[in-house]
Input
Amino acid sequence: MITNAHLSSAPTLDRDFHRDPPTHRIRVLVVGMGIYAQLLARQLRQDGAFDAVDTDCEEVTGALSKYQPHVAVIDTGSAQDPRKGSDLVRQLRLLLPQMEVVLLLGPDRPQLILDAFRAGANGILSRRESLDSLKKCVCCVHRGQVWASSDQLRMVLETLRSALPTQLVDFSGRPLLCKREQEVVRAIAEGMTNREIAYHLKLSTHTVKNYILKIFDKLGVSSRVEVVLYAVSQTSQSRRQVAPLDDLAPGPHHSGREPVRSAQPLPCAI
Output
């Protein structure tokens, strides 16, 4: 977990944060049980970039209404069923769609990571990471980016490549992309480069880049990763039902954790 030793340190954020600091304090809602959530919120408040409060699952609806956070950080480390974290992500996205969501997970398990992104999480962070990493993650998702480690992303891509929908649609069921743009989306999910997509679809690389820019604009995203995650979120909409908030309270604390590698924000390059 994000330990007391990490929390008591005075981390220095990366150069990107100092070069482009938030223009306002980021309101953060830490959702979890007991002293751990309280400690995270208190330590975030000690940094002038954050205004953080904590709440538990039973009080989260009221906290959202009262506090209107920019970012929610959900700790599922002590939950008996880690999948409830994804259910809570889904609930929060419905209650406050403009809010970004970060999910703190235990050991990396591909299906849990995939479920979290399908539910609408903007960032995934291991509970073994430092407070420094949490701050970077919160700032990253607040800027509209996605946060995950390269290993987490690789697990997601390997799991979802065969599960993408044949067509991306809006809320009315109308196609968002033309046939060629949809073919480019599937090629992106396969991990192809622009040159490989051009060869596969018999197009020029310049045309492929233009298609990708059009896809970004139509889906409201800024990276290839977010294109794939957008498609994943549509895959799950007809499969999952939202669990009641009363069923989301974590169970007894479980202390066993496995170390994972440090997370880095995903690139937004075309």
In short: The longest strand covers residues 26-31. The domain at 4-149+242-247 is CATH 3.40.50.2300 (Rossmann fold). The chain has two domains: 4-149+242-247, 159-237.
